[in-house]
Amino acid sequence: MSRPTGNRRKKCLNIYTYGLSVVYICIQFSLLTDNTTTTTKKVGLLPPHNAPVIFKASATKTKAPFSFSACLIIKDDSIILPEWLAYHYTVLPLGRLIVGVDPMSYTDPTPILDAYRTIGMNITTWKNDSFWRDGRASWSKKEYTITNNSTSYGDLRNRKRHRQHVFYEACLRQLREENRTWTMIIDADEYLAFNYYDDSEQKSSENNTRSQLDQQSSPVTMADVVSHWDIDPKLPCVTFARYLFVSTETEDGDGEELPHQSLVHPDFNVSLFHTVRCRQRAPLTSPQVGKSIVDASRYDGSPIDNPHHFRTLCTGFGGHAFPDNKFMPFRVHHYVGSWEAFRSPGFDARGRSYFDKRNNAQKTVEDSTMTVWLDKFTTRIGDREKVIEMTQTLRLHAELEMERKIMEQKQQQLFDWEKLNTKTKEWI
């Protein structure tokens, strides 16, 4: 089921609400064609008759066949980090993580990362650009000096992108040495999600991995899917389509908010979980550039000049950043989230105006396929109080720290606050 939200939308802020009914609406998914060709290709897929059966073999399994890894670079993302860790720990499962902390960060993710180390996650933190590799331009040098008066927005943006590229290269090299395999290359506001069919979408009659997906198959992890999927095993990288979720509430035909607190246990506050509260998504005909997973054991050390596609390593037409995802089992969800989580102390080229611009979607559809993971996480941990501490309590502490840092920066007047936070130029 899908429908435009029109003008009946409200900002997804930290408002405590409770509801009455459970909404299970799968995603409408349509074919995205490669703009470089006039014919539809199932690039990197095995023939339908060779597609193995996933769920019959794994329905009674209690342990995933392997754990994923991830390379994550962050800057003041502590508010959204607990949810990101909990979700991927549950759904992938995520077992190995290397975090690169931007030296311009004002907040410290260590308490959050330590909490997830206690449940068995192997987490390494790289600080102070220990992974840095100098480039040719002045802004790509590790010893480059950033000043408030002489450093341009363009230089800061280019330096940020250079940091991303050298971090991903160093991270994949490290994971290759550890004999790790499938590794996520996504951001802290993005989630690797199952590519469920929507009720209004015609399900493929072919025997492929996506056609076997079942939202109610709770024992199935993404590792189960990857271990049996019909992606060509020779490919060391797979790119998936990515879709923006805006910060709006879901409403009924009378403009009233649809209840959503009942989607999770009443001990949880839904307003503190973007994946459960924010369920308005851009149409599947309007994807953002894709994101990828890479088999680190087969990473050849080639330069990574774009985190959205890895040249010819990935599926798609020459590593195309807009993949045909109709037959893929996964996609990537990208959340604008709340303003409290979006803003940042100090230099923030995105600012409030960019936050509002992101949320100014002319048309959205409802997507409630991310509402079940929190119960699964609770089951896996086995202690609801500990889960609350590891998710919403850590987030609330991070919000308080962020507010304190922002006030400190305003008082110190280290930046032209109004100028930096009304800037609308997109910084990707």
Could you give the topology of this structure?
Blueprint: H1 55-58, E1 68-74, H2 81-91, E2 94-101, H3 110-117, E3 122-126, H4 153-177, E4 182-185, E5 190-194, H5 222-228, E6 237-246, H6 274-277, E7 280-281, E8 288-295, E9 330-335, H7 339-342, H8 351-358, E10 365-366, H9 373-381, H10 384-412, H11 417-421
Parallel strand pairs: 1-2, 1-4, 2-3, 6-9
Antiparallel strand pairs: 4-8, 5-9, 6-7, 6-8, 7-10
Helix pairs in contact: 2-9, 2-10
Q: Can you summarize this structure?
A:
This protein is α/β, with parallel strands linked by helices and 428 residues long.
3D structure, described in words:
There is one protein chain. The chain is of the alpha/beta class. Helix 2 crosses helix 9 and helix 2 runs antiparallel to helix 10. It is globular, with a radius of gyration of 21 Å. The N terminus and C terminus are likely disordered.
